Amino acid sequence: MATACISGHFLARFIDPEPAKCSISASPISCSRQSSIHFFHHKYQSCSLSMNGCQGDPRAPIGTIETRTFPTVPSPALAMDTLNSAISQLKSDPPPFTSGIIRLQVPIQQKIEAIDWLHAQHYLLLPRCFFSGRTRTGNSDIFNGNGHNSTPKTHNLVSVAGVGSAVFFRHINPFSYSDWKSIKRFLSNKCPLIRAYGAIRFDARSNISSEWKDFGSFYFMVPQVELDELEGSSMLATTVAWDTSLSWTWAMAIDALQATMCQVSAIVVKLRKEVPKTFILSNNHIPSKTYWDLAVNRALQLIDTGNSALIKVVLARSSRVVTTTDIDPIAWLACLQVEGENAYQFCLQPPNARAFIGNTPEQLFHRKCLSINSEALAGTRGRGRSTTLDLQVELDLLSSPKDHLEFTIVRESIRKKLEAVCNGVVVEPKKAIRKLPRVQHLYAQLAGRLRSEDDEFDILASLHPSPAVCGFPTEEARLFIAETGGGCVCAGYAICGDEVVYVVVVVLKKVCLVGVGWGSGVGEVFDRGMYAGPVGWFGGGESEFAVGIRSALVEKGLGALIYAGTGIVEGSNPSLEWDELELKTSQFTKLLKLEVPLHQKLIT
Predict the structure, then answer these.
(1) Chorismate-utilising enzyme C-terminal domain location, by residue (predicted)?
(2) Range of the structural domain that residue 103 is part of
């Protein structure tokens, strides 16, 4: 009865403003989808040995898109030999096109785990990526290329690891329809494994801090060299892309590919799914517990008074962990795979930059041809220590009025957005439990059929950000996040090296508290960057994106920034929400020792 009363009070306000079909950002902006909006102008060091596909004409077709498959070999070393020979032959007999993209792939009898192969390339300064689907991506006809020695077979793709970029896509401006078309220009239904892997910022309207500058507003890459982990086997592939109109000729592209191949290791060692525990020198939360409580209470005031349209807002925390030794992001990712059931694992790292890694249970959408699937995920509880206790926790989550409200907001918002571009939407199950190794959530599955494959951009622009990571209504929640910064409103700042120290003022119930917080932008005290943004890949006839939560930004020599967030609705308790943050970050903190031994403290 309590659930029905609370839900009935708010469900009438579920109608979100009409989603704009424009640039991807954390709020709808009214403009044509062919346009993009310019907010900030930063100069980036251009990525060497590659080209930025965003600088081309998205309307100009690529001269050729090909996949060439070679005979199966027993080992990665023999696959490298085959590819090097094929690249040399291709160099001596170049294709008669001023632009194109060609993938060369060699099946390997031996099953090589993609994460192991990527770790073997850890010394490279090239960009790298990793994506492991929560479930198998389905029957991809990966050997049915249009080159020689093609043998039609069907295998399931498990994980992909890549180094180098045959072509990358990055811009300081929000991800636009034109950028999407620039990526799709290099993709084709007939070459399903030529894919662009990457991520988009949570809020493209917020300023970009120093730790996220290499990612821009979005960053995607088609790997130069990649290892595809299949069920029972694997495949090594190389991709070369060129476009004379972008001043990236065939000769430059093939030379760059050969240079990358010279650096790739064919020796793959099984990576242990554990890391030597490093000690924490410091662990600073932004916001602190005090400012967190203030932010939650302020949100509850707005929600409870009815003077605001705000029903839900998702507040986040950034925890900067400084360790005694460097953190290996790929080793961390391998450990996350142990807890990876019902979750996506990902890594995205621009050249010689920080690595964004995560283990997220939340799907944004999966498109195959015209079929589209999405999910609603909200409400969190820990796992019980026994089967009986776990069932009690599950029943408590299912019957909680507060969690039912939070979950219903997410589900109904996603359903409405899918209905705007689909002929019909089916929600089944409407409310169930998804169990993960450490936590369990309420979830629902939604499926529909797009009217056109070009609606993919509209789906991405509409679904992100969902109420699960931003709030509802979207614009009110985004503004609250930007204005509070986790409970802080900036009153002034001073630049200290690469950081910005803010003198912040929080006003709540006519009580003014002044404190100091660290950040790099006006508005939210820390920059969410790609945290809670779309993370995944675009393909010719298929695309899949997760939501970049349960994630961290690993900084070489500086430890890591660990991110987590919780949804605030009527009935939320600041301390319980803080405990939920701790629960969500535990998959990372369990890899660390929380205290430095006394003798090390005395030495330092």
Answers:
(1) 291-484, 524-584
(2) 51-136+155-263
